[in-house]
UniProtKB/TrEMBL annotation:
Family: Belongs to the YciI family.
Protein name: Uncharacterized conserved protein
Residues in YCII-related domain copies: 1-90
InterPro entries: Dimeric_a/b-barrel (IPR011008), YCII (IPR005545)
């Protein structure tokens, strides 16, 4: 956890951190869908997979290369995988 704290402080200090939080385990998930106007809920995650999203960082990076540099600093990158995605910018 110290490594995550150190990374979080680094991106905060560098002005890159927009948001981020750890997520509770998949056993706490509720999946919601609407079918024929009726809201349905299912206890558990959307997909049954071995991999789990443990949290997220939303960083303000200038481009994909910079985002990859920061993603490589996240402690999980040493033994798992980090997914990098741009946010959608809606033009009004």
């Amino acid at each position: 956890m110290k490594a995550y704290g150190d990374f979080t402080q680094k991106v905060r200090d560098e002005g890159k951190l927009v948001a981020g939080d750890a997520l509770q385990g998949v056993e706490t998930a509720t999946t919601v869908s609407v079918r024929n106007g009726k809201t349905e809920t299912i206890d558990g995650p959307f997909a049954e997979t071995k991999e789990q999203l443990g949290g997220y960082y939303l960083l303000d990076c200038k481009d994909l290369d910079e985002a990859i540099e920061y993603a490589a600093m996240i402690p999980t990158a040493d033994y798992g995988r980090i997914e990098v995605r741009p946010i959608v910018v809606w033009d009004n």
